[in-house]
Amino acid sequence: MELKDRKTKITFHSGVLTIGGTVIEVSYGLDRIFFDFGTEFKPELNLSNETLQELLDNRLIPELDHVYDPRLGYKEKGENTHSNTAVFLSHCHLDHTRMVNYLDPAIPMYALKETKVLLESLNANNDFILPLQDTANGFTREIIGLDNEAVVRVGDISVEVQRVDHDAYGACGLIINTPDMKIAYTGDLRLHGFDREDSLKYCEKAKGCDALIIEGVSISFDDERHVNRINSEQELLDKILSIIENNSNKQVTFNTYPANVKRLAKLVELSPRPVVLEGAYANILKQCLDINTRYYQDDDNDYGLDESLRVAYKDLLEDEGHYVWQVVDNHKKLKGGGVYIHSDATPLGEFDPAYQPFLDALAANNIVFERVACSGHAFPEDLEEIVDRIAPKLLLPIHSLHPERLENKHGLRHLPIRGETI
Ligand SMILES: [Zn+2]
C-alpha cells in the first residue's frame, strides 16, 4: 500500500496475523521509532536456548537494521544511516516486552513509569524477560519511565503516551506525530476494566488520525468464547467476593496474573477475609501502588516487606475460614475440601498441556475449582466502538488471527502483512 505524497513510512516487522510479538516501525527521513519489543509465541517449537539467532531463524523476532545489542552478534547488512532511533513499550506483557534486553544499549527505550516498575519487579529473579548472558540476577535494561501524557521527541517524530485500560498495570497507547501524519497505536486495550476513562481519553486524543493501528485479539475467536462471559472487572470482583462469602469455614485459595495489579488491589481492599499474597506478588503491590498486605514466603528472596505482615505458610495450609490466600504451586499440600478460584492465572486453559493435570490434582484433593476470568482485551463490540470514536482515515488492524473482522466506516482499511512497509 502507498501513503500518497507522504514521507512517513510504517513497517510491520512482526506480530501482525498472530497474537504477540508486535514490532512496528514508524520512520520519517533518518528518524525512526519502534513499538513494541516482544517475541511471537510458539511453545510447540520447544526452542533449546532462545538465542537471538535461534529466535530469528524461527521468525519469532524480525530482522532489524542496527537495533539489536551488538554483543549478540547480529549480522548487520550495512552502515548505520539513521539519525535518531527510540523504542516504546505499550505495556509489560511478555508478548510486548520479552526481548527488551536484546535492544542496543545505545538506543533509548521508553514506557510509562508504572510499566518500568512492574517489569523490573516481575523480572526480579531474571526469569520473566529473556536474560542477557553475563548479567547478574534481575537484570532489566535501562527503561526511561514517563509520566502519563508525556511527549517524547525523536528527531522529527513526536510521541505522546496516554494510559489505557488493560489487564496489565501501566498500559498505554501512543499518539505519534510526524511532519506529515498523525498515527495512533492502541497497544492492548479494553473498555470494561476499572480504568475505562483512560481508554476513552485515548480515543479522544487519537480522533481523526490519519492511521489507526489497533489490536484485534477478541475478534480472533468464534462466538462460543463469549458464552457466560464476565462483562467487567467489577463483575469479576463481585463474583470472587460472593464465592468467599458462600464458603465460610472452608479453605479458600486463589491465583491470578501478577501484572493485573488493580485486580489484586481491589481484592485486598474488599475481601471479607484478610488476603494473604505470595511474597513476589506482595512486592509488586507494594512497588506499584504502595499497598502493604499480608504475605507468605517459601523462598529466601529478600523483598524488604514488613515482617509484621508475614503469615506462616504452614498456618495457611491448615487454615479454614480465616484467610483467603494465594496459592501458586504445591496444590497437593492444600487441605482437601476447600475452594480454589482460578482468575486468569497459569495454566491459562485447555491449550496448555499443564492444564488438565492441574485440574486433576485439585479434583483428587476434593477441591472445588472455580474459574473466574475476565478478558484484558476489548470485546468485539467495544473494538467497533473504539474505531467509531476515533474515526481514522485509515484502519490497520493487527495482533489478531482475524483482522478482517474489524471494519472502518470512516475511511480506508488495510490488512498489513508481515514485513510490509506502507
Ligand atoms: Zn497485553
Can you describe this structure?
45% of the residues are buried. Strand 5 (109-112), helix 3 (113-122) and strand 6 (144-146) form a beta-alpha-beta unit. Helix 3 (113-122) runs antiparallel to helix 7 (279-289), helix 4 runs parallel beside helix 10 (380-390) and helix 5 packs parallel to helix 6. By secondary structure, the protein is an alpha/beta fold. It folds into 2 domains: 9-222 and 377-413, Metallo-beta-lactamase, Chain A (4-Layer Sandwich); 230-371, 3-Layer(aba) Sandwich (Rossmann fold). The strands form 3 sheets. A 7-stranded mixed β-sheet has the order 7-8-9-10-11-18-19. It is 22% helix and 21% strand. It has 10 helices and 19 strands. The structure holds zinc ion (ZN).
